Amino acid sequence: MSLDDLYREVILDHYRSPRNKRALEAATIDVHRNNPLCGDDITVHVLVEDGIATEVAFEGVGCSISQASASMLTEQITGKKLDEIDALVTGFRKMMAGEEGPDEDALGDLVALKGVVKYPVRIKCAVLAWDALQEGISAHVGS
Fold first, then answer.
1. Do residues 69 and 125 touch, judged by C-beta distance below 8 A?
2. In the sheet that 29-35 helps form, which strands lie side by side, from edge to edge?
3. Which fold has domain 3-142?
4. Mean pLDDT of the chain, nearest integer
5. What is the dihedral of CA 116, 127, 64, 4, to 10 degrees?
6. Residues 131, 23 contacting (CB under 8 angstroms)
7. What predicted TM-score, i.e. pTM, was given to this entire model?
8. Where are the domains of the chain?
């Protein structure tokens, strides 16, 4: 199995069996975003306690890339401090912009989304949940 096939399998696994796809009533951060060009619709929920994302969930509908990315986001940031999450978002965005090679140690399964860079119109699908997350953290920290 090639690396591209493996990455494709990771994306399909997160799409078919999304992690943490549910409401989160106690969330400190709730941000909704949509991509009107393709119909992706995501709400990211984060429970922040003492500066740590203790619980993360998402709700939404959309293409396999947007849904898999949101699922991976929930796994990657749970248990991390907000400044660690900010660094992760920065690394993910750089990978998606083609500015930097993927750091597998830092990004984990998110590296599977690096192939999306070949399809510029799909990058917005992959970063939609991350845009919501970043907006929510900025509002939370600023409050």
1. yes
2. 29-35, 40-49, 52-61
3. Sufe protein. Chain: A (3.90.1010)
4. 93
5. 30
6. no
7. 0.94
8. 3-142
